[in-house]
Prior knowledge:
Layout: H1 3-25, H2 30-47, E1 62-65, H3 71-81, H4 86-92, H5 121-134, E2 141-146, H6 153-164, E3 170-176, E4 179-180, E5 183-184, H7 185-188, H8 194-200, E6 204-209, H9 213-224, E7 231-236, H10 259-276
Parallel strand pairs: 1-2, 2-3, 3-7, 6-7
Antiparallel strand pairs: 4-5
Amino acid sequence: MSEYKxxxxxxxxxxxxxxxxxxxxxxxxxxxxxxxxxxLVALYFKEMNISPKNMDDPDRDRxxxxxxxxxxxxxxxxxxxxxxxxxxxxxxxxxxxSPYIGHPNNKLPGIEMNSGSLGHGxxxxxxxxxxxxxxxxxYRVYTVMGDGELAEGSIWEGAMSAGNYKLDNLCAxxxxxxxxxxxxxxxxxxxxxxxxxxxxxxxNVLSVPGNxxxxxxxxxELAKHCKGKPTVIIANTTKGCGSSVMxxxxxxxxxxxxxxEVEQIMKDLDERKEALS
Length: 277
């Protein structure tokens, strides 16, 4: 099995952990978790220089989960990477007194900043990337945003600044699943010219199938070799990816599956994984 297929299999395994987490915590943004998890696996297991061994190293890469409501996917990937125990996250997720709360908490190892209030990840990452340039460091900075999040004005202030300062050490990823809590993104705030908008601010723009591991890894490689511009990767994903129970259904933005739905979701995930071999 190729390395990319192994990463895809890992993503399907971690989707199952997300389901367990949401059921345990009696809540969670499961649809966006399922769409973004391939991106997170590609970043943490192939692209970024981040691990439990170097999380305090000033030369480490930086990552901010701007769409903090997809924290279950983030926790699952961090646990798989060894930052904290997987079973502990599942057992304690969203419980009273637990550090594994419903949005990223920087008191946990491996999490750079708290997030959840949308629109803040990119501006903070612009600062991190600019600091890296000023300090003559080689680290790279990554952030994942939701497509609904792009209605936040602070995103575009950050985009303008990053282009102005030619921050080629910055890579932003948009989880373009086309659904948000209130429905289709195009019905809320049109985004059909997204590529042109980013390009107008001086960004290198890549648009890829966001649940395709090969395409994601290739896009990250292209981003590293782009000089003089920050890169945005528009990852065209499927909300609820992995199960027909959830796919492309806005109601799964935040929902707890029933026991019957859990059974079907787990079956679908196993079948998708087996199809890769």
